Hints:
By secondary structure, the chain is α+β, with helices and mostly antiparallel strands. Helix content is 32%, strand content 32%. It contains 5 helices and 8 strands, in the order ββααβββαβαββα. The protein has helices at residues 24-32, 50-63, 110-126, 141-150, 182-194, and strands spanning 9-10, 14-18, 66-73, 79-89, 94-102, 131-137, 153-163, 169-178. It has an 8-stranded mixed beta sheet, with helices on both faces. Helix 3 (110-126) links the parallel strand 5 (94-102) and strand 6 (131-137). The radius of gyration is 16 Å and the shape is globular.
Amino acid sequence: MCWPDPFCTQGNFVSLVPLSLDHAEDLAAAAADGDVHKLWYTSVPAPKAVPAEIERRLGLQKEGSMLPFSILGKSSGKAVGMTTYMNIDALNRRVEIGSTWYRKAVQRSPFNTECKLLLLRHAFEELDCIAVEFRTHFLNRQSRAAIERLGAKLDGILRSHQQMEDGSLRDTVVYSIIASEWLAVKANLAWQLEKPRS
């Protein structure tokens, strides 16, 4: 039995739909926007590598360890990035939200906040998750700040956890939100989406 099943969801700014090769052209343009694929501490595919990355994620979905999504701008209908449920642990009802990236034009917009709200809501309210994890490179300050704004709490740092493509070793910062924290996190994310942006 597959857990979790693929699903679609939408908010005011974004829609999340199952990842598909149909989105490859939009996602290649998104990866080229601002050269986000050149950030050494992230794993955004180069524009030409987008189809292979989609195939890789779909392969992990078949194995049951990932559920990948395309992030669509609600007004444009175009894919502006990718995200996933990954490191899926059905027995313990845990998922990680990760391997997320956006085109530069929508960074620091409401897109990421709403995307995380939609994924967290599904995890806690539909899948009855015990906990949802977030992981990032220790040196990725932008990602760490974004995770902390969600209300996730620091679990710890896995030192020399993974080898990067350039041969460097990644210290992985691990955060989580547990089920008992969800209502407060949900209220905070809703407030962040409603408050005026400076």
